[in-house]
Amino acid sequence: MATDRKLPQRRKRSLEILPATGVEPLSPTELGDAARRAAEEILIAGQAENTLRSYRSALRYWCAWAQARYRTTLALPVAVPVVLQFMVDHLARGPIDGPKCELPQDLDQLLVESGFKGRQGPLKMNTVIHRLAVLSKLHQLRKLANPCEDAQVRHLLSRAKRAASKRGETITKKTAATREPLEAMVATCDGSLEGLRDCALLLFAWASGGRRRSEVAAACVEQLTKVDDRGYLFRLHRSKTNQDGKANLPDKPIRGKAAEALRGWLEAAAITEGPIFRRLWKSRLGPALSPAAVAEIVRKRARLAGLEGDWAGHSMRSGFITEAGRRNIALGDVMAMTEHRKVDTVLGYYRTGNLSQQSITNLLD
């Protein structure tokens, strides 16, 4: 039998306006300048260091080009005719072996001599696309009218891409360090402290899933877990595709020759904490290597091994994927090691290695 029970009444709290202060109230319909600058700083802080470096480089070039072309500083928002002029000044026209652009030769030479441009002549299509993207991003952050979204700019860029394809302009990739060239590089490393470091670095970068040069430079002893005498597990806290570190990705096993080389380097250098790969000052250890120094070690060892090609830090990553394709390793396992998110990004390297070993390439034999 139900009994009549009175439920306790919730106390009503009156909303009271806080007492006035000397702080000016904000508008609820628009973001203030201080808040916008703070948001920009947060967005910048969340970017990968390599991305920030490429953004700074692109914006420096925009400013230098505008100063040379217009004899004035680059003003925001940038006018659409300025963007169109930038495009025709840098997009290649004509035959692939003799391209031309609208940038006057004197200004082109000045930009090269001032260190803002690598060489005279048109820029590669990918470089132009990147510099337009950086300018577009700047306007988005500042909530300004975006000239890169203008119909004239988008149409010209679309046609320029088609023209580049018709001219035979291709995307150049760094040479892949598959097993044979990797072993040739390792063979140049002697028993000196530098030799031990470089050997361990090359094998670590390759065997742990083709780590990016920034990841190799940032690798610390604390990320290693020793697995008996068989090797290590390397935990990558964050990466280009996992910048907030939330993805539940497997630790990367380092075994065999790579584990032996890593152990030999750590023992010889007496490293028990902090950065794994460091600068060497004669017989003394310095701070962690920079990403650029990692790439230079790859180039140096390729040069000493007499290997031809365009070598860089990315050669370890592309070489690992290509070699995995040669050996028919499951694509899912490869992506678990490399931490690629998109299949199409990794598939080009994987298929290059995979197709070279398939009977379909020998149909005339």
Question: What is the typical, i.e. mean, pLDDT?
Answer: 83
Query: Tally the helices: what do you get?
Result: 14
Strand order of the largest sheet: 1-2-3
β-sheet strand percentage:
5-15%
Would you give the CATH topology of the largest domain?
hpI Integrase, Chain A
Q: SS-based structural class?
A: mainly alpha
What is the string of helix and strand elements?
HHHHHHHHHEEEHEEHHHH
How many strands, what sense, and barrel or not for the largest sheet? 3 strands, antiparallel
CATH class label of the largest domain? Mainly Alpha
> Which descriptor suits the 3D outline?
globular
Topology:
Elements: H1 33-45, H2 49-70, H3 80-90, H4 105-113, H5 125-141, H6 151-167, H7 179-186, H8 193-207, H9 213-218, E1 224-227, E2 231-234, E3 252-255, H10 256-269, E4 278-281, E5 284-288, H11 291-304, H12 314-326, H13 331-338, H14 343-355
Antiparallel strand pairs: 1-2, 2-3, 4-5
